[in-house]
Write a structure and sequence with these properties.
The chain is mainly beta and about 150 residues long. It has 1 helix and 9 strands; from the N terminus they run H-E-E-E-E-E-E-E-E-E. It has a domain of about 100 residues: Immunoglobulin-like, CATH 2.60.40.10. Strand 8 and strand 9 form a beta hairpin.
Length: about 150
């Protein structure tokens, strides 16, 4: 005995399934590949921005946002570049506290008579992989005023 054909269902469950399927098809273009806009870096500060010849630590503070990725999901990093753009400090992943990302970079000592000025490069990357970069701040390590100090005993 043949099995009788069933009429397709047109009830509420089918309507919900159709809406979900449509939402999935529409969203296929919005997952990581639909966001083409990089985050925005609106402020970068380096404190202190001048260190003595011994170098040392400076705090980098950054305000960054994104039109799609929520703040805690942004990855914000900082690194210290010398005059040839070689990385001499970092990269350091900055942590979010309130509305500001911050972290500490360590500058190398300077045992020459001339000061060394480094560029602080900050990058913010969103969940889609878009990256914004800011190189507007510098960190200076003063030179020696006389001969280097003797080594510790």
């Amino acid at each position: 005995m043949p099995i009788p054909a069933r009429k397709p269902s047109t009830g509420p469950a089918v309507a919900v399934l159709a809406v979900l399927l449509l939402a999935l098809v529409v969203c296929l273009g919005c997952g990581g590949g639909g966001d083409k806009t990089p985050p925005t870096i609106t402020a970068v500060t380096v404190t202190p921005n001048i260190l003595d010849y011994q170098g040392g630590q400076a705090t980098v503070s950054v305000t960054a946002s994104d039109d799609v990725t929520a703040a805690p999901a942004l990855q914000v990093t900082a690194e210290l570049l010398d005059s040839s753009q070689a990385v001499v400090g970092g990269p350091v992943t900055l942590t979010l506290a309130g509305a500001t990302y911050s972290g500490v970079l360590t500058a190398p000592s300077n045992l020459t008579a001339q000061q060394h000025t480094y560029t602080v490069r900050v990058s913010a990357r969103d969940a889609a992989g878009n990256t914004a970069t800011d190189q507007s701040q510098s960190l200076t390590v003063s030179g020696l005023d006389g001969p280097p100090p003797p080594p510790p005993p």
